[in-house]
Amino acid sequence: MAIISPPAYQQGGTYSARTDRLSVITGMLGYHGNSGDEASLRTRSGVRPSYQQQQLAVSAQGTPNMTVSVSAGICYVQNKDLANYGAYTVINDAPVTLPIAASSGSQYRKDTVVAQVLDAETLGTVNSGSLVVVQGPYAATAGGTTRGILPPNSIPLADIAVDAGVTSITNAKISDARSYQVASGGILPVVSTALPDHPAPGQVMYATDTDVFLYGKGDGSRAELPLAGSAGIGTFRYAAKTLNQQLTNNATLGNDTHLVVPVLANATYIVEGAIFYDGAYNQGDLKADWSIPIGSNLMWSINGPATGGQAAYASQSALAGTPLTAGTYGTGGTQTTITPRGLLTTGATAGSLQFRWAQNNAHASTLTLYQRSWIRVQRMA
To answer: For the whole prediction, is pTM greater than 0.70?
Structure first.
């Protein structure tokens, strides 16, 4: 096909549902921002934003059981059965209860709640919109779980950790997986770890987890929206842990769930923080490093207790990419602290500064990083 004729909407014309979707829904929504879809008429699938993001939110029941509740809301689901077939509007007008399959007695899995559209014009014989729980494959550990294969023309709303032997699902086991979509020209809410890779020029995005505004540039990249008259010089960006996080038998560095802040290209930042942790005395210990944008460098010091069970102070420094270590001195009432400090200089690529950590030596004892640990950067140049 080339030009769809007649154009929507001419007097006396007859229009297919596809034309309606492309003109009224896809045509009015924001650009998809995905480099993989640039040659198509696709838009971004997502939930309509709302105050405190209450639309299509997945939550546990008031008295937890093996069901979850999905709140009322509206989302947009892009058809990917065929090219250039537009996006659908899916409306849920009241809370819906969805059953979660019984848990295994010894294994773990990750289930995913999705909003799905079936269109008999492009695939199959059914026309429907529905909320579906996709059961994930079983794994021997909670950390080894993965999503199941999501159905065509669907968007994830939440992931649910179904642990071995559980008989109810609490809110602590539900992870929000919603993405959002707005009208063309609107400000797009998005988490900093899932920013569109090719936003439309001038598209403004709000990183909900880091409280930062960004915009799309003419070359398809993105940058932080600078403060008027200062380009952000002297300003702080901050992140704090809102939940405890634990590792056992794991000496492989991984990204912290919460401690990540966006940084601009061609800028200089002072980096500092306070990381509160504990672990069995002289067992496993703590290993730390940072993830930084391509072309950047970070010289930093860990500033914490030494390893080896001695109450000595470790102030060794290194470039990011060379992990530093700190000791553990007991659990419970014996939390200790590292206070990392450093200087980050970014290159031509913007991105994120993210704290990474693991046990220094894999050990059966538990290493815990506590909520209220924090990092921040202050732009100096």
So the answer is: no
